[in-house]
Amino acid sequence: MLVSQVAEVAGEQRETIRTREKLGVYGFERAGGWKRYTDFETLVIAVHAALKRAVKDDDLAQIGCALAGKAIMDEWIKDEEGTPYFDEETFKRERFLFFWRDDAGEWTGEIAATVGEIEAMVNGRIVESYSETPIFTTVNLATILKKALIRMLEVQIKAEMAAKDRLPLPNPAASTEGT
Fold first, then answer.
1. Strands (E), 75-171
2. 137 with 99: CB under 8 angstroms?
3. Is 110:67 a contact under the CB 8 Å cutoff?
4. Which residue did the predictor score with more confidence, 58 or 90?
5. CA-CA distance, 110 to 138, in Å (whole number)?
6. Are 158 and 65 in contact (CB under 8 A)?
7. pTM score, two decimals?
């Protein structure tokens, strides 16, 4: 995808994406210049943007982005041609991000795979921090991923439709010549 398409998927400005990329926020390195983004890179950028809007914290968004990126890489399936995709079961899978402050006050995070697992993490954090302020937050990563994947598909379809509109129409007179 082009940066303008990635920006549309992520709901961000192109320059915001470029700036964050230069700062290493997304956790992947890219060569400078005009390039297309892979589906993985687009998804990571969209997840980061959604997390930043949800938690309003740069550190949490970056930690969540790294956790989501690893989860995405672990769940890609490749077809016969080596093209990665999510199957229906993977698309439907629940995923939650759980963030908490450690003893030094730094944010850390983990992915939970089920509602029961996230509830146990929340309850454990409440018990552990009963005498202190229980500082933690959760984010439904599955919802963020699903929305980002759907937006990616919509942007790709829109680009394909625009490309078809730019194709020259066949000349009916040319097809009857020579008959």
1. 77-78, 84-85, 96-101, 107-112, 136-140
2. yes
3. yes
4. 58
5. 10
6. no
7. 0.76
